Amino acid sequence: MLKSTYHKGQIEAGCDEAGRGCLAGPVFAAAVILPPDFRNPLLDDSKKLSAKQRNELRPIIETGCISFGVAWADQSEIDDINILNASILAMHRALEKLENQPGFILVDGNRFHPYHDIAYKTIVKGDGIYMNIAAASVLAKTYRDEYMTLIDQDYPEYGWAKNKGYPTTAHRQAIRKLGATPHHRKSFTLLPPQYRLEFK
């Protein structure tokens, strides 16, 4: 069972993102405030869960939490400010959507920018330690997967419903054959340097 909070006795939001390592699509982030008595034995780092488990957990988190927010930064923002800053921007936008202002923010990873005047703590692999970060990781991942499946309908050749924009061999082969789409991140190395790439 994961730890419930970092600080007891105050409203604490857990934050995490999904999609940093993808070649296409936005980076999504979620912020979740859980009640002190929230428990679920299945809840863990979303990367350790199957898609079925994540989708089962999502409504449990959404109905059982005090508040949650999900947001994103799109591929053009990623290209403009880099993936790290875009990930943090998405987290800030998710925090902005919370109905309750947290007294403390717990962030997965090792980098974050101050959000208003709220104290925060970054925790490497925090999504496998704290429930509120794990819950945020599940929401960020499921919402992003849903989005990538949706845009896959317009660009089925790239296999986003399956690879979710990650750099699989099939995804790179499609880029090599068909070029890059408007959803691809121009600042990322989409193909090895020896291949010429054209954006649509």
Note down, in words, how this protein is organized.
This protein is α/β, with parallel strands linked by helices. It has six helices and five strands; from the N terminus they run E-E-H-E-H-H-E-E-H-H-H. It starts with 11 loop residues before the first strand and ends in a 22-residue tail after the last helix.
Question: What's this entry about, in short?
Answer:
The protein has 200 residues and is an alpha/beta fold. It has helices at 51-64, 75-81, 83-96, 131-152, 160-163, 169-178, and strands spanning 12-18, 27-33, 67-73, 104-108, 119-123.
Supply the key terms.
single chain; 200 residues; alpha/beta; Nucleotidyltransferase, domain 5; five-stranded mixed β-sheet; 6 helices; 36% helix; globular
Task: Describe the secondary-structure layout.
Blueprint lengths: L11 E7 L8 E7 L17 H14 L2 E7 L1 H7 L1 H14 L7 E5 L10 E5 L7 H22 L7 H4 L5 H10 L22
Parallel strand pairs: 1-4, 4-5
Antiparallel strand pairs: 1-2, 2-3
Helix pairs in contact: 1-4, 2-3
| Strand residue content | 15-25%
Give the integer mean of the pLDDT values. 94
* Named CATH architecture: 2-Layer Sandwich
* Beta strands, count: 5
Span from first to last CA? 47 Å
SSE arrangement, N to C = EEHEHHEEHHH
Binned, the helix content reads 25-40%
Enumerate the spans where pLDDT stays under 50 for 5 or more consecutive residues: none
User: What would the CATH topology be?
Assistant: Nucleotidyltransferase, domain 5
Structural domain tally: 1
CATH superfamily: Ribonuclease H-like superfamily/Ribonuclease H
Overall 3D geometry?
A: globular
Structural class: alpha/beta
> Which CATH C-level class is it?
Alpha Beta
Strand order of the largest sheet: 3-2-1-4-5
Estimated radius of gyration = 17 Å
How would a textbook summarize the main sheet? 5 strands, mixed
Oligomeric status of the shown chains? single chain
